Amino acid sequence: MPKWFFSRSKSYRCKNCGYELPKEEAVVSGWTSEKSLGHIHCPKCGKIIKTV
Fold this sequence. Notes:
12% helix
């Protein structure tokens, strides 16, 4: 799939297990001072889905 597809999609897909996490249910983890080191974990396998 093209890279732009994920930014326009209404969910994040885990590359490890294939789980789809809706963007409205995503919780940002990590230190978010000036939006650095923030990330979203897959609730199924625990891997980082997206760095924000």
